[in-house]
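To close the section, here is one more complete example, presented without commentary so you can practise reading it yourself. The ligand is NAP.
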Amino acid sequence: MPKTILITGSTDGIGLETAKMLASLGHHVLLHGRNLAKLKAAKNKLSAVSSDQDIEMYVADLSLMHNVEDFANTIAENHSKLDVLINNAGVYNASDPIT
Ligand SMILES: NC(=O)c1ccc[n+]([C@@H]2O[C@H](COP(=O)([O-])OP(=O)(O)OC[C@H]3O[C@@H](n4cnc5c(N)ncnc54)[C@H](OP(=O)(O)O)[C@@H]3O)[C@@H](O)[C@H]2O)c1
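Output:
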């Protein structure tokens, strides 16, 4: 049964790959990122592997609390429930060793 799945940080890296896989399995994926152009590119990639005509995009910088609140409120307005929330957004800063 198709699930409604919000993946934060799904314009790149692990989030984007996860979004593509879940969309290809028939789930309704809600994309999120900070940049509308990257979101549109991600949506095109999902459209290539999914028949979902309504892949949603949300712009929010999660380092800004007012963006977080607006994002949560918009999701709540558009959906009575989410089946899955994948909190993926973030950066992975590997240490830079000095020898
Ligand atoms: N890659 C690894 O080896 C590794 C290892 C351990 C843990 N992780 C964790 O796995 C997650 C994904 O890593 P990744 O390597 O796939 O990262 P990535 O390729 O850099 O992608 C990061 C995603 O998070 C979004 N993002 C970053 N900062 C954000 C912010 N302030 N507000 C909203 N969205 C934000 C980016 O959106 P835009 O760029 O479109 O704005 C992008 O979609 C991170 O939480 C990271 O800490 C990664």
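Once you have examined the tokens, check your reading against these statements. The CA atoms of residues 5 and 84 lie 5 Å apart. The chain has a mean pLDDT of 96.
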